[in-house]
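Friendly challenge for the regulars: who can give me the structure tokens for this chain first? No prize, just bragging rights.
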Amino acid sequence: MIGTVPRLLAYVFPACGYEGAGGLPVPQPMDLTQLKRPRPKNGCLAAPPGLHLLPDIITRAREVPPRRLYAALCRLLLAQPRTTAHVAYDDRLQAHFVARSELCNYPDLIAVQVTPDAMPMLYSRAVYGSKDFGVNRRRLVAVLTALDAALGLD
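First reply, four minutes later:
Bragging rights claimed.
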């Protein structure tokens, strides 16, 4: 159940009036290697080097099968506070999640994709506003920091 503040915010920011992925369109599959970021200050991209744009966080390949890496990333994202699954394109090793802020219920969108060579790519961004105050970066750092332990690679 959402609180009074999110209900009031919903008059200006409609998605704040919902829980989980409610109020947000289902994202279509996307190619994170071809990402075009409209507002880089309201999100964070974690990806391997060599893309057409510079990631905020550089990721590296893991010595595990890509499907195992994908499953671990999905589990870690779902373990984040107030985060729910939105849609999965398992054949592409891609999934989308929604994380909501505690106070105002602002939604953030998170996409995860694993390449055939076991390279993780994550893109987390705010739906509303031009700044995210570092929330998306901290989220991705937490997931990537926990990743090797989750895979048993420590």
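The chain has one domain: 39-151. The first strand starts at residue 43 and ends at 47. Your move, everyone else.
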